[in-house]
Amino acid sequence: MLPRRKLGRQGLEVSALGLGCMGMSHSYGQPDDAESIATIHRALELGCTLFDTAEVYGPFINEELLGRALKGRRDKAQIATKFGFVIGKGAFAGADSRPAHIREVVEASLRRLQTDHIDLLYQHRVDPATPIEDVAGTVKDLIAEGKVLHFGLSEAGAETIRRAHVVQPVSALQSEYSIWERNLDADIMPVLAELGIGLVPFSPLGRGFLTGTAKRAEDYPANDYRAKSDPRLQGGNFDANLRIAHLVEAIAREHDARPAQIALAWLLQIREDIVPIPGTKRRAYLEDNLGAAALRLGPDDVRRLDEALSLHCVSGDRYGAAGLAMIDR
Q: Which CATH number fits domain 4-205+261-295: 3.30.230.10, 3.20.20.140, 3.10.560.10, 3.20.20.100?
């Protein structure tokens, strides 16, 4: 069974690894609801409690899928979902964190998830048109009403985190962080440590690159996010980034482990309140990923990974221009 961790200092305790559900119905190829639900059930059997979704995944259908999967099992799970986007004609159409909209989203999410509360509610992206104090205040009210238990932010900047935390303590920040994506180190990590906020890294496997199974962008089907929106898989960036993936593979062989397990074990050793959420819709990959909790990297492994990153900087931005414009605000 997976060990548990305290995610920050606000009382939220979850499994050491969570399950990212986005790819079950959004961005990564053809959905397979039957296998996805079987994967969620297997995660529960292995002691995984934290399941991550959002209204925009699908949109809407990912929350519905998770709600169906957890029916009769809700007491074993902790659900994290997100608000903050306008969804027009079935697609993302801008940011919206107005208090009235937050309430609308929460009520709709509760219906889709077939539950009476959300364990961890994130603002999906910071809305520059709505003061973060208003956002935090609305979530504070929802917590008082019992509809939400904990407040989170995603891809927020340091000053925004501080301002939100004054109004309603933030339990977790969800942002991209991994062996090859260290964007949080300089400014964000110190703030999280100071305020007692946990970190939930998404894309902890580099959108598959750190597993050794990633393909060039042009080799993915058109409905896969990576085909057009991941610069690190495109052209010469792909070739340059293979050097880091090859080192992860080499360390995995030394430990008789999978590359994904090395990437996740590294995260688990950075801080005790980090809970990665690798995503998969397949039971076999889930079991591999959760096996990382039993793996311990030595100091030499960590040194080699850090040196490789300093010598071979990651080639390419992690988002296209539109995505980069919505982070660190």
A: 3.20.20.100
> Does 57 participate in catalysis according to the annotation?
yes
Residues 149, 119 contacting (CB under 8 angstroms): yes
Query: What 3-state DSSP class applies to 288?
Result: helix
State the SS3 of 119-134: EEEEECCCCCCCCHHH
- Tens of pLDDT along the chain (329 residues) come to 999 999 999 999 999 999 999 999 977 778 999 999 999 999 999 999 999 999 999 999 999 999 999 999 999 999 999 999 999 776 667 899 999 999 999 999 999 999 999 999 999 999 999 999 999 999 999 999 999 999 999 999 999 999 999 999 999 999 999 998 999 999 999 999 999 999 999 999 998 899 988 888 888 888 777 877 789 888 888 888 888 899 999 999 999 999 999 999 999 999 999 999 999 999 999 999 999 999 999 999 999 988 877 766 788 888 888 888 888 89
CA-derived radius of gyration, the chain? 19
Specify the pTM: 0.95
CB-count burial class (<10 Å; 0-12, 13-18, 19+) for 239: exposed
Residue 298: CB atoms within 10 A of its CB come to 11
Q: What DSSP state is assigned to residue 293? A: G
